[in-house]
Amino acid sequence: MRLDYPSNVKIIRVPCTGKVDVMYLLRAIQKGADGVYAVGCLEGSCHYNEGNFRARERIEYVNTLLDEIGITGGRARMYNLSSGEGPTFAAYAKEMTEHIRKLGPNPLKHK
Amino acid sequence: MKSESNLEKILEAGHFAFTGELGPPRGANAEHVREKAKPLIGNVDMVNITDNQTAMVRMASWAAALIAIEEGLEPNYQMVCRDRNRLAMQADILGAYALGIKNMLCLSGDHQKFGDHPTAKGVFDIDSMQLVNMVKTMRDEGKFLGGANIDVPPKLFIGAAANPFAEPFEWRVHRLAKKVAAGADFIQTQCVFNMKKMREWIKRAVDMGLTEKTYILAGVTPMKSVGMAKYMASKVPGMDVPDEIIKRLQGAEKGKVADLGIEIACEQIQEFKEMKGVAGVHLMAIEWEHKVPEIAERAKVLPRPVV
Amino acid sequence: MIVAERKPFEEIKELVKEYKKVLVAGCGTCVAVCLTGGEKEVDILKTELDMARRMEDNPVELRGHTIERQCDREYLEAFDSMVGDFDAILSMACGAGIQFLAERFPQIPVLPAVNTTFIGVNQGIGWYEERCRSCSNCVLGDTGGICPVTMCAKGLYNGPCGGTNKGNCEISNDQPCAWFMIYERLEKQGRLDCITRFTPAQNWENQVPRTLIQPGYKKPEKQ
Questions:
Q1: Domain residues for B134?
Q2: Which of A10, B120, C8, C181 is the most buried (most CB within 10 A)?
Q3: B191 in Cβ contact with B245 (< 8 Å)
């Protein structure tokens, strides 16, 4: 499809967003990522029934942990799409990048 | 006679008892107790002095009871299991009796969650039935719960509460039987509004022979307003207010609801006077002590017998 | 199982604020099952503390280590060679584990990262309910397998009280009345006679620290 999406997004493949652990997300921020997001199947279409719901809950939890740590603004997000939606994937990548740009860099970077 | 209580004498003599209630103030205001006591003098045989009712801190029940004695009333010292362990309970019982208190009502107590100290530790070392039994053992066997002898046993007339309306209804009369077996000399019931259920409960108590072993005083509370009736119907656990009562109050002429409330209470008292197994009425005129003379007059329970 | 709940992060941060090297000690038994203090939760807490302290320009050196059980000497031994390097230990075990750890390393501050909550059951993933207060005098045989000490808000032995409210407790409509349930169950089993008897005052045996020595075993004279 040769779609453009921001080159600052580094993709890590997982078999299901249900595999995305709180620690994966937290570690990303700890190591200096400015934001972290999971892209899962549409709600109701999870092959494992509730993998993407679990991921959404974990992402909300990670945001509360980040708030406690003092890194506010919701640097973790969840998006849902179906496997055939390349353009949506690119659009979400742009949206996330813009959201993070507004928040500025990870405050831990210079610590 | 088990005690030196005036209430016991009245009941023993076969009179229909009429008792009242007085809630101690939220402060050290003795005058307030005296004020509330005045309208009760000569109109009731005994007055219940509540113990940190609804789990709100108030003047100690025994202290307000002593003020009531000074005013010429016979107090019924209420004690809840929520606030003290068996040591404090027995100590207070001895002290109360030593200072002239002759009746006592043993209660579990509303859960502390409802009160002004919701995170207090609820004691509940013993339950209300075990409290009844402890007071009986102290009085009749002259022994503390721990087994040691008491030099001067407290000759108290022992009361307990019963709620004829709480579920499971089938169990209520059996629980009454347990309280009687534990040693309750008299029972004061939860406020009665559902007369149909009350009749059924009393009938069962009579059939089981319980009214031969204990005196049952039916709880009566006059409704002050439709709002109060609705609140009691929906918000007070264990209370059974039938719709008919609310409808009847709603039908009252403007400004006459309270009067109708008193009328309904008087009708109930009238029925209780004739109901087999009921030995008297316990009037809980909540924050309405000054209305007691009028209610007593209209219910035709005056003058109170002198025994 | 013993159920615990993690302390609020602010409180944990405050507990360790003076220390530069902290060992986060997890426990792999009860608190791991209830998702509070196992290996994973140690990892999360460690990461949180690391990030929060860096944010405050007060970095802390952290290590996490989870053993099978902190209430067992055999497993605690694993910490012996480790603790010398740390200013404090933050334990994620239940109160028993934390104390046993503190007893083993009396020279080091051992701090709690969790609040031990109750002895309970697993109703679903992440959903636990209290069932036992370890009163030392079990009456479940007479009460249809429903504990009046734990499940009745007033711990009544001769319930229900007058506050029972259409099958619920007076404290909340979400809390079933224990004595209502006891009645229902015993009635179905035809065993109501179990509760028609008056139950006398309980002899509380949980008012002093308790010790149990099984038959055939002895407490060693001196260690």
A1: 6-222+251-298
A2: C181
A3: no
